[in-house]
Each structure stands twice: as C-alpha cells, then as structure tokens.
C-alpha cells in the first residue's frame, strides 16, 4: 500500500492509472476502522481496479470540541488492517493539506432542508463540514466511484446534493449497514462505550425493528413517540426518532403519503452519541 500525505502526490500517482483506463474507487473515512469500513473496501475492490481510502478526522464537521478530541485515532492498527485488505492507496493528510486556505473550510452551497432536520438540527454546521470536505476530496482524487455507508443515511443525501451542485462526475455507491452480533450498528464511536453499555445498546436496533413491525399499524407520529419512550432507558437518552419519506427525508402525516419510509434515530449513551436507521 502506498501512503500519501499530500493530495498532489496522490494525484500524480493516480493520473497514469486513470489515463490507462483503470477505474478508481474511493472510500472516505475518519479511521478507527471496523467491519463496516471493511465492507466498503471490499465493495470498492469488486467494482474498481484501484482503491484509494482516506483517513481524515475532519475538524469542520465536529460541532463539539470534546467529541473531536476524544475521537479514536488508532492509526497504526488502521494501517496494518489496510495492508491486510490490500488497499492500493491510503491518503492520510494533515489538516493543512485538505484546507490550504481559510476559505477552503467553508461550503458555499445551500443544503436547504437536508441541513435543518435530524442530524442537521442537532449538529449545527456538521453537514456543511461534510459537504465541503467531500467536495475537496472528490475534486482532488477524482475517483470514478465513491463508496459510502447507508448507516449515515442523511449524510448520503447531503453528499448526493453536493455532488449535483458542484457537478462532480463521480458515481456515489451506497453500501448496507454492518452490525455487531447484538444488532448495534458498527461505528468508530462504539470503542468509547463501556462493554456493558455496548451490549445494552442493542436497544436501538430492537427499537428500529419495532418501528418496522408497527408501520401501517400505528399512526406515524404515535409510533415515533412510542419509539422515543422505548429508547428512554438509562443510560440512553434519545435525541430524535423520526420516520420520514426515504427519498426526501420529509415528514408525512400518513403512511399512504409516501412509497417508502425510513426510521432514523440518534441516541446519547453518556458522552457517546450513536446514530442508526432502518428502511421500513
Ligand atoms: P466514518 O469513518 O465514520 O466517517 O465512516 C466512513 C464511511 O464508512 C462512511 O461512508 C460511513 O457511512 C461508513 N460506515 C460507518 N459505519 C458503517 C457501518 N456500520 N456499516 C457500513 N458502513 C459504515
């Protein structure tokens, strides 16, 4: 695996591959890699000739400085894993390589409704940070395909919108959520949970399954309320449980008003914030 700390070096290495017709697949991450990330790598390897993975803990998408500080960074472990998985290139930049000028930090587009609900409402500025870093990464790496997880369903919608706005030629490939044995969605933040809370956090998965089982049975708002109550079990504290139209993320009053719905939730477990979702 070739490790590049500078985007300019990476571009120089990718250019001849691109010219010779190789398909470049890209997996953006913040590191602390787990099976969820590995599933994206494997999908990228299936569908592309060369795989680039980035590890960059993007400061502009953190709305709480404590969250940024305690974000796990086991870089040596990650590199060993990536070598084992035979990833071709690791882009491992310092903050200055991604944001060369102060103006690089700001996203100049309007994410509209996507930035105002659920994660957008609870994490002000988060999606602008995501949109901007993804814009810069796609601009510099120019992959044919980018692989991202449905675990971050709203993020996928934001990146899709950003790519349309900025005219990126890359195809976005959504990949399914990988879960731990107890149903908890894999996440780098799971490492921060004490073992007994990590075990109990299957409550989130079971609540999503409950929502799936009760769709069309209960009115939408009542079902959301019932799920909030189920999640309100110490040490867990739900921030939201929303059932929205999958394609627009808009709330509907009645099940007949949309073809498909998705349940999305964010739950705090002490200082750790967990998100998950399930198509209904
Ligand atoms: P992160 O390192 O958390 O920013 O995640 C990097 C990529 O991995 C994003 O596209 C995530 O949606 C994806 N991802 C994170 N957790 C999972 C999971 N449990 N299953 C599938 N993809 C995931």
Please describe what this structure looks like.
It is a single chain. This protein has 280 residues and is α/β, with parallel strands linked by helices. It has two domains: 174 residues, HUPs (Rossmann fold); 92 residues, Pantoate-beta-alanine ligase, C-terminal domain (Pantoate--beta-alanine Ligase, Chain: A,domain 2, 2-Layer Sandwich). The protein has eleven helices and nine strands. A six-stranded parallel sheet has the order 1-4-3-2-5-6, sandwiched between helices. Strands 7-8-9 form a three-stranded antiparallel sheet. The protein is globular, with a radius of gyration of 19 Å. The N and C termini lie far apart (40 Å). The protein binds adenosine monophosphate (AMP). Adenosine monophosphate binds next to helix 2 and strand 5.
Summed up:
With 280 residues, this protein is an alpha/beta fold. The protein has helices spanning 7-19, 35-47, 65-70, 75-84, 95-98, 119-122, 126-141, 153-166, 195-200, 202-214, 220-231; strands at residues 2-4, 24-29, 50-55, 89-91, 145-149, 171-175, 236-245, 261-269, 272-279. The chain has a 6-stranded parallel beta sheet, with helices on both faces. Strands 7-8-9 form a 3-stranded antiparallel beta sheet.
């Amino acid at each position: 695996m070739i490790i590049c700390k500078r985007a300019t070096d990476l571009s120089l290495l990718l250019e001849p591959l691109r010219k010779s017709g190789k398909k470049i697949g890209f997996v953006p991450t913040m590191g602390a890699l787990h099976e969820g990330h590995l599933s994206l790598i494997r999908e990228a390897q299936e569908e592309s000739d060369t795989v680039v993975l980035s590890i960059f803990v993007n400061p502009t998408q953190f709305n709480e400085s404590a969250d940024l500080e305690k974000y796990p960074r086991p870089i040596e472990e990650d590199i060993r894993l990536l070598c084992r998985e035979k990833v071709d290139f690791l882009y491992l930049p310092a903050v200055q390589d991604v944001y060369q000028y102060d103006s690089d930090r700001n996203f100049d587009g309007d994410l509209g409704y996507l930035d105002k609900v659920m994660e957008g409402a609870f994490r002000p500025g988060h999606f602008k940070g995501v949109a901007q870093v993804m814009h810069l990464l796609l601009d510099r790496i120019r992959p044919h395909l980018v692989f991202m997880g449905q675990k971050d369903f709203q993020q996928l919608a934001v990146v899709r919108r950003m790519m349309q706005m900025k005219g990126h030629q890359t195809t976005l490939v959504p990949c399914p959520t990988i879960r731990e044995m107890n149903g908890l969605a894999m996440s780098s933040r799971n490492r921060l949970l004490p073992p007994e809370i990590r075990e109990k956090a299957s409550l989130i998965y079971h609540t999503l399954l409950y929502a799936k089982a009760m769709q069309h049975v209960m009115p939408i708002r009542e079902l959301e309320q019932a799920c909030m109550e189920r999640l309100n079990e110490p040490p867990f504290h739900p921030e939201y449980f929303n059932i929205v139209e999958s394609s627009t993320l808009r709330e509907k009053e009645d099940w007949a008003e949309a073809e498909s719905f998705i349940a999305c939730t964010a739950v705090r477990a002490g200082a750790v914030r967990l998100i998950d979702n399930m198509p209904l």
